[in-house]
Amino acid sequence: MKSMLVATTDPSVKASLRSALKRGQRLEEAASAQDCLALVARRRFDLAFVDISFINEQLTPGAEPDYGAALRPFRASGGGTQLIVLTPPESIRQTVSAVKAGADNYLTYPVNPHEVELVIAGLNARRQIESELEYLRESSWRGDASGLLRTRSPLMREVYEKLEMVAPTRATVLLTGETGTGKSFLARLIHMHSSRSKGPFVAVHCGSIPDTLVESELFGHEKGAFTGAERRKLGKFQIADQGTILLDEVGTISPAAQIKLLQVLQEGSFSRVGGEQDISVDVRVVAASNVDLAKKISEGGFRNDLYYRLNVFAIELPPLRSRREDLPLLVANLMDRLERKYGKGISGVDEQAMQVLTAYDWPGNIRELENLLERAYILERGRRLGLAGLPADLVALEHPGEADEPSEGQSLAEVRRRAVEEVERRYLERLLTAKKGRVDQAAAQAGVTTRQLRNLLAKYALSSRGFK
């Protein structure tokens, strides 16, 4: 650790820290929360010692204390800063809450130089172990997935640990979480690291299949089974034999298909629609749902016995807003991918843009982040992605004065036109995110024709492929 910061009004602490420094290490000082945050905004520190009172200043008055949010500004320069809370004994309860919310350790006043050395040594050892584990994890995952597997989030570490345990087994897995959290990505990882990795991986988006065709899509049909069945068709389960099938949005399938799915899970066999012969398959099932299946059971929309067959090994993916510490890692990985795809020579994101991205709640999760970054990358004219390419409403949330406000020199008609266009563009982005880039479904939702929607996408330089 070469760069350290101490933020406190106690001069004895600064002296204790300086006595613990080694050659080549430097210590910056701040006497207030404002000075501390100004330093953090300008440069990255390996380690920061911050008084609990400075952290408390970031809490919202009258609200439930959110120390996760209060700590975030002290790591604004990139998220890699390790944070030590300095506290008087009477504030130890608040300090424990801060440590639980993400601070790395704490020291009580008066600060002892020997304790400082022990804390720094402990953090160095922990960082070394985490680096080694991160390296081993990344080296064990194949392909382009390793960049997205890097994490600083305890919630995601737990997800990856579960995934590594269950992937080599034959167990059925149920992935739950909000739309866009990466359930399909995780399902592919489970397949890649199973004994079935050389077999097929078949993904079925159950929510996009009409109820009348779900059984045919999953289990196939015989010629003449229904009007339009002009030839025999193999179902997705038969195609996935000796491999893995992902049933995305499994909670949307019809009651009749639920019965057949239960049969496959129990007996490993099914019959095609219109057929009488039992077909045996060896398929591992990974199901995914963004709705509460237990609630659907209580409402009569999902079979209780099927739920327990699917819920053998459950993994819940946290929303992106609950793992903000991973934003810099995800953004860096996605920007690298965009650079390989488009090659515009854009490297990274500037600090202001990163602050905006970190402050946003990401209701569409990682999928929304991917789509937003691709659009911003395409619009960016400089060498680093800045505020110019980000949606105005996002910039306004973090920098209210920096949004592109109308001026008195414009006509009322021009102001209205720009306001309508901005709202219209944001609506299209949200709509395509919700429909995963499917233009026909988005057009139906919007109440326009597919052609009209495509014209609007062209007007705003939006590509439906970027939302899939």
Automatic annotation (TrEMBL):
<dbReference type="InterPro" id="IPR002078">
    <property type="entry name" value="Sigma_54_int"/>
</dbReference>
<dbReference type="InterPro" id="IPR025662">
    <property type="entry name" value="Sigma_54_int_dom_ATP-bd_1"/>
</dbReference>
<keyword id="KW-0597">Phosphoprotein</keyword>
<keyword id="KW-0067">ATP-binding</keyword>
<dbReference type="InterPro" id="IPR011006">
    <property type="entry name" value="CheY-like_superfamily"/>
</dbReference>
<dbReference type="InterPro" id="IPR025944">
    <property type="entry name" value="Sigma_54_int_dom_CS"/>
</dbReference>
<dbReference type="GO" id="GO:0000160">
    <property type="term" value="P:phosphorelay signal transduction system"/>
</dbReference>
<dbReference type="InterPro" id="IPR027417">
    <property type="entry name" value="P-loop_NTPase"/>
</dbReference>
<keyword id="KW-0805">Transcription regulation</keyword>
<feature type="modified residue" description="4-aspartylphosphate">
    <location>
        <position position="51"/>
    </location>
</feature>
<keyword id="KW-0547">Nucleotide-binding</keyword>
<dbReference type="InterPro" id="IPR003593">
    <property type="entry name" value="AAA+_ATPase"/>
</dbReference>
<keyword id="KW-0804">Transcription</keyword>
<protein>
    <submittedName>
        <fullName>Fis family transcriptional regulator</fullName>
    </submittedName>
</protein>
<feature type="domain" description="Sigma-54 factor interaction">
    <location>
        <begin position="149"/>
        <end position="378"/>
    </location>
</feature>
<dbReference type="Pfam" id="PF25601">
    <property type="entry name" value="AAA_lid_14"/>
</dbReference>
<dbReference type="Pfam" id="PF00158">
    <property type="entry name" value="Sigma54_activat"/>
</dbReference>
<dbReference type="InterPro" id="IPR058031">
    <property type="entry name" value="AAA_lid_NorR"/>
</dbReference>
<dbReference type="InterPro" id="IPR001789">
    <property type="entry name" value="Sig_transdc_resp-reg_receiver"/>
</dbReference>
<feature type="domain" description="Response regulatory">
    <location>
        <begin position="3"/>
        <end position="124"/>
    </location>
</feature>
<dbReference type="InterPro" id="IPR009057">
    <property type="entry name" value="Homeodomain-like_sf"/>
</dbReference>
<dbReference type="GO" id="GO:0005524">
    <property type="term" value="F:ATP binding"/>
</dbReference>
<dbReference type="GO" id="GO:0006355">
    <property type="term" value="P:regulation of DNA-templated transcription"/>
</dbReference>
